[in-house]
Specification:
Length: 323
């Protein structure tokens, strides 16, 4: 089968489209014929660093059709449509920019009829991330408000839609060119992240946010503390060097600060399973209560360009790869 692999860390041109042996499904796995995968920043970051172990097939999520089942699998059968994520790390770490993958069943769910493979792949990693941040960590409830930084991003635009689907009011930040589209996805207000008074504007727009989803805490943790309401939850999904800006303000507001990585769902046995979260997201898509936007699609032979674009270009939604 064809697969996009790297044998060392480095620039996107270390990616090679290779012919490798098709995997067999092990115990507890299903073999999926991949129809679509999506492009995530973690794919490019892992490639640059030569992680997690080499050679590595890139790609963190997929959608496709089950073509064989391993021993001990009774909830999936040949012909089932499925989608999955957590494929970049942990005990699977096999990658999805390929024609087939043997996927452990706890990383996947049935893809509802009416949801395309492209949309299933596009939503998988970012949808689980947004769910884990807003539902598991922040406990966002109907009537609440959520500040979502980078609202046009893969995570951001699904978080906006998810907050809206939960009955909360999302307030997003984004460049002006995306404001109308984010309003269509459910954002009550969209703020240009370049404005000088962002923290005040975010606090005004949210009335003191119940939840803040921050993908750049090194830059925005101070904004988050200022914008969060009493008892608010700040969820950071990235960052390296953030220092806590104002402990007194956070203490006065009794804020909770959460640090998370969806990768932990694939690596920690104490973390929740991915499959049930995908089930909920798949149902929201099928019911038309959540949207995922696909900006453009690449072939496997364009994987290097896709890796470059996901880190360097501005777009709304997701980049998808079709084998
Ligand atoms: N911990 C986890 O579980 C987890 C899961 C998924 C992703 N992540 C991380 O979260 C980050 C976002 O992932 P993604 O998939 O959403 O990436 P993405 O699709 O590339 O989106 C990146 C977003 O960041 C925005 N951005 C860039 N510069 C900004 C700035 N100065 N201020 C505010 N926003 C800015 C972009 O806006 P423009 O279009 O204007 O540049 C875009 O909206 C990445 O670092 C990724 O590795 C973490």
């Amino acid at each position: 089968m064809r697969a996009v692999r790297y044998h060392e860390g480095g620039d996107p041109d270390v990616l090679d489209l290779e012919d490798i042996e098709r995997p067999d499904p092990g115990r507890g796995d299903v073999l999926v014929e991949i129809e679509a995968a999506s492009v995530n920043p973690v794919d490019a970051k892992f490639r640059a660093a030569g992680l997690p172990r080499l050679p590595k097939t890139t790609g963190s999520d997929l959608a496709g059709t089950v073509v064989a089942v391993g021993e001990g699998v009774d909830d999936y059968a040949e012909g089932d449509r499925v989608f999955a994520t957590g494929l970049h790390t942990g005990r699977f770490a096999g990658g999805s920019f390929a024609e087939y993958a043997a996927v452990p069943t706890d990383l996947l769910a049935h893809l509802p009829e009416g949801v395309s493979f492209e949309h299933g792949a596009a939503v998988a990693l970012v949808g689980v991330t947004a769910w884990r941040a807003l539902v598991h960590h922040a406990g966002l409830e109907p009537g609440g408000t959520a500040l979502v930084h980078g609202g046009n991003g893969g995570v951001g635009h699904v978080a906006v839609g998810l907050a809206d689907a939960l009955g909360a009011t999302p307030v997003a930040t984004a460049r002006p060119q995306y404001h109308d589209a984010l309003g269509d996805l459910g954002a009550g207000t969209v703020l240009d992240y370049g404005r000088d008074d962002l923290a005040d504007a975010a606090r005004d727009a949210t009335g003191g946010a119940d939840a803040v989803l921050d993908h750049m805490p090194d830059t925005y943790l101070g904004t988050d503390v200022a914008a969060a309401g009493f008892g608010g939850d700040i969820v950071a999904i990235a960052g390296d060097t953030a220092t806590f800006p104002d402990v007194a303000a956070a203490r006065s507001a009794e804020l909770d600060v959460h640090m998370m990585s969806m990768s932990n769902l694939a690596t920690h046995s104490d973390a929740p399973d991915i499959g049930p979260i995908l089930d909920r997201i798949g149902n929201l898509l099928a019911e038309g209560r959540l949207d995922v936007t696909i900006d453009r699609t690449y072939g496997l032979d364009e994987a290097a360009e896709a890796h470059r674009a996901v880190l360097e270009e501005s777009f709304l939604g997701k980049l998808v790869v079709e084998p």
